[in-house]
Amino acid sequence: MAEQGEIRTFIEGNVGWLVVDNTRRHNAVSFAMWQALPAAVAALDADPAVRVIVLRGAGEETFISGADISEFATVRRDAETSRAYEAANEDSFAALRSASKPTIAMIRGFCMGGGMGLAAACDIRIGAEGATFAIPAAKLGLAYPPDAIADFVRLLGPSSTKDLIFTARKFDAAEAKSLGFLDRLVARDALACYVADYVAGLADLAPLTQMAAKSAIATLETPPGSPERKAALAAADRCFNSADYAEGRAAFAEKRKPAFSGR
Q1: Residue 67 β-bridge partners
Q2: Residue 128 and which of 147, 199, 234, 235 are 20 to 30 A apart at CA?
């Protein structure tokens, strides 16, 4: 592993794994890792073998403890340096948010600050009992720009987002589930099997449908006729004109499991 940690990727079957690896610092994300993350997401998203992308921390103890604070005296020391740092943050969140394929955050242990931001940018968050969450900016005196908190507001609402940032308090997985941050909450020793089963189920279904759904949901706040709306409509048209749609109809008529190809 690199001295400042690294972003690793690998593919198992139809699943692309995106691993934040900095175990010496509880998988804290260094500036170099923030910079590397968008390209790693893009590579998995572009790989035709990948149906689902799973974000996780290295090891079995923690997800992502946040940004690597040990670097802040140099790379995030003032307003000028923070702008480049925040741009790297926002590029990482945007890469996950805009990936065409489903993105799943697999959360155990610490999920704090920038780690919560990365999880929030994913489509689905599956957490283990015993996980700990926080947005500790107020303990450091730093600020999040609008793009960095947009996903928190989308998931939690304005009031809960304010509460968590104002108080910087830690909260457990049960509260994360009740707030709407976690989509699924499972026993700690069941997390790996649960995620494996969940993503295998996704990978068996029609990928063009999943992509079209992501596109449509992402454009709900854009005006009719916008480029984003037009792209979402084109994604829907692609489904109806696809071999997968024909396969789905045939499989239903023949009472068998469909074999989707993404075409």
Answers
A1: 29
A2: 147
